[in-house]
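Narrative summary of target 7.
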Amino acid sequence: MEEEVASPLGHMEPNFPAETYAAEAMAADMDPWIVFDARRTPRSEFDDWLESNRPSRVSRYGDEERGVRPVGWIAVFGPDPCPCTGDVVALQESWEKLVASGRPVNFQNVKELALNHGVLSGKWLMHLDPGFKVDHAWECVARATLDGKISNVKVSPHDPDRGGRHVICVYNQNFTDEGEVVQLDAQIRATGVKCPLSYKPDVYTHLGIYRNNRWNLCPTIYESKFNLECVPRRSQIVNKVNYLDLT
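Modeled conformation, tokenized:
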């Protein structure tokens, strides 16, 4: 599953069109977020905040009768969070011109647009089952973010109606810097997270490019699997664009 919104039907992974995933992601972004910002909130409050906002216990759609609002994301911003840079509006305008031109739409063209407009951030994604697995992984990366080892992270809340899987997004500043992407994977692994990861540039998200898009683009450009057999234990990272093993 390449997109950063969790599959609404859990393990079945239906083949919805990319536009469906884009609409779900936009709706989540627009709903209120639960945020711990290390720049503004005392560190002493973090443990209570974390316990009160575990993703397995926070409802995506809230409870209208009890006055509980919907929640789009739960997020932690570290002492030095990854900045949102670039001109997204100009990026989208250039994208519309590219599509209308009839030129080939491929990774290199999308990367060129991202570089031209400075939209370079990206994220490692992990998709996890509800319950202990997501709560444990979330606590690992959230604490690393509080310590400044990771810039910022977010996790999707639980969908009580559909029982879908959660997704955790761990951000970095520049998807074109392969060393930076690999280093962030190492930081995630250092927290104890061992599940498979996939990496998606934010440019794809801003352009509404998710799985099952009409250009047959794969929205994730790296995959990371933790190798338990090698010594020392480490990730095996594959660049999906040119199929290079980076380990």
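The first strand starts at residue 34 and ends at 37.
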